[in-house]
Specification:
By secondary structure, this protein is mainly beta. Helix content is 2%, strand content 53%. The chain has one domain: TonB-dependent receptor, beta-barrel domain (Maltoporin, Chain A, Beta Barrel). The strands form eight sheets. The protein has a 22-stranded antiparallel beta barrel. Strands 16, 19, 20, 21, 25, 29, 34 and 35 form an eight-stranded mixed β-sheet that branches.
Length: 859
Amino acid sequence: MKNKLGLVMAISLLPGVVCAQREEIATQQQTSNDTQPQETDSTTSEDTILVRSTPTSQSMGTQILTKEQIERLPTGNGSVTELLKRNPNVRFGNSTDSSTTPGELAPERVSFHGEKFYNNNYMIDGLSNNNTINPGANNGELSNSPDGYSPTDLPAGGTQSFWINSELIEQLEVFDSNVSAKYGDFTGGVVDARLKDPQLDKASGKISYRTTRDSWTRYHIDVNEAEDFESAIDLDQQPKFKKEFYTFSANQPLSDKAGFIFAYNRQKSTIPNYAQWLGQWEDQIRLSETYLLKGIYLADNGDSVRLTGMYAPHESKYFKKDAKNGSFTNTGGGYRVNMEWEHIANWGKVNSLAGYQFEENKIQHESDSHLTWRRYYIPSNFVSDAIDWVSSTPASNYQNAMIGGYGTYSTEKRTTTFKQDFELNPLALAGIQHQVDLGWEVDFYSARYKRFNDVTVSRGTVTVDTSVVCQQDDPYCIDGEQYFKSLTLYPAREVTGNYINYALYLQDSMTFGNLEVTPGVRAQYDDFLQNLTLAPRFATSYDLFGDRTTRIFGGANRYYGQNLLAYKLREGISSYVIRTRTNASSAWTDGDLRTASIDYDISDLKTPYSDEVTLGVSQRVIDTLWTVKWVGRNGQDQFGRETITNDEGKRYYILQNNAKTHGSTFSLTAEPISPTQFDWGELSWSLGASYVKNKSSAHAYYDQSADDEEMVIFDGKLMERGAMSALDFNSPWNAFINVNTYFPSLRVNWNHNLSYTAGYTGYKTQTVSCPGSNSACGSYEGDATEYQKVKYKDYFSYDWRFSYSQPVYKDQTIDLTLDVINVLDNVIETSQPTTSASSTATVTYKTGRQFWLGVAYNW
């Protein structure tokens, strides 16, 4: 009899529900669609069935979304993080979906169990997708002065290097607790996106178009700010926008053993911006593209080889306010190639991966100089003939005109990765079933900051002189009008940083009767921080009655974070030279190289970590699985900023391990074991709810002060900043129910998602002098920051996706989709004034009802 090895059972999840069970019986490579087993060498005479399963306690911290589930979810931009909205262990930033910036494409910020939004590990096909250069820049949000508004900005691209769209994803795995020792470089959560594999049964493809725009969107804007908002004079005021998404994919089998898939995804958003004093409209552009080529080969011995190439750039075009030739473009992303080899052996399975990735974040201005000329100057009765624009409201006796920008500067990172994961066949010893996983990884990193050319910025005020005669080709002088005597020159510069990261892990899932225990450990060392870390992992579960109806689970784990290169690459970034001359006819003279009053330096750092304790119970009721879970996190040695002064009196910003976080999450999830079948169709559902309480000593991110000993008055009590609750990602209660209805006779699918978010507490701040200013001061003497509560209301959000498929010829179809986000058009506040003195400032809201329309041709 032939030896048959294959996958015989797996449980698929409904959207947004944490996986409760995922068992596999597999040691033989599957066919292209992973549904039919292959036969192995027939030399043996006995059947062999080897059982491998994800440890129950670890599966309770796992969410899995399949391609089919992703396609059914209500979708906006379709980012990876948007798919986490139905995960009760995730919190989104309070400003997500702001009504003032509906034209943006960047992925949303998310936090797992109170950890910082930049401390997650994003992966694509098992390779890192983390942007570790400067992921917390601007707190991860668009401001009215984005990266590029200063010649000393460190270009950044957010937390994810590649902004892939969910249409390219075959499966998404999300790990929030009891995470296997296989994963490292995070203190929050792990998000692993598996890109679509080629299908070998037939050739197929897709062309699609999807769009929304301002006329299909309901805005909710502060009535006191509506007129200013409509003027679109600020980059974060977007009353007009148009988004257009295009997708093309072609799947081509070469044989029943090999094939490839090519996919192209393009997302473009056009956002008109008005230069008030220039009197002209310009289009801001947001663009994200992905080119994917992936091939697969299935060997006769059951091995499989995958080869993937991906190029995924993104860019954002901005305009410096009322500056002529002041546009600048921030680009990010890059390319990667990787090879995966899955080998089946008689002792188990090994997955080998080798990859190379290049990513670059670049800021490119129209000019290498930024100058501020005079349009007119009353004391001299001067009106310029050469300057025909203005950049600001007229002052009492003059008006300025700005032109140009800050040249081109970039950060880049090259990563070469080698890793192997070994899954040994289950082994019974002394009545205990062992399932051992182990592996190693080596990452070679090379990072660089570069300012490509010298950049000059006008210094002080221009000299108005109607008799001036300029030297030939002098860009800092206008004949008979004006010239500059002083400039600030930022010289071309380059800073590099290289390091290697090594990792080993071992895990053994042991089963004895109804008890399952999974100890593990992950060891890492990098020669950047030069720290050796040991992260113990322990998870356990107990099947109370031995029939899987009631299971108690828990765990205790440590997770270590990843390195940030921001401060290393910022060393000397503010260095400049003052260039002067006595008049327009004299030569320029350069002074000594200077640095700003505060520069950046790196210090002796520990690797940030987070300790976790979990406890929960899973109960099967008829054909429904209910899971209650508590996760407690304590983040230690987190990065925060501190100011130091050296012996020469020079001040520096340095990274210090002076920040900490604390998160406590109670969650409930439920789902049926399988969809309910009716005569008219199929019904499936899932629900989730959670309560969180988070604290954070640091401000929004590592580039803000995180002094734990700073005194604050919070909730009416005097305390150190380290005892404060978190100020973002702090919605206490969240709940959702997702219902999917499919009508096969009509070829219609209708997905509904109703979510509830409890009102959270925001704060206004003011500085008080203790002890006299506030009764909470007690005997404390000195200044303190007082936080005054601002309550936000509870709200419901109802979203749905309607899809219809129309056959046209053989296997060809035309599919229509309609997404409606915030169907009920609820008015939801996201922020209020942040200081007590700004009580009349703008209140911002989430976007109202929004329609997305899509059409696709499939063959």
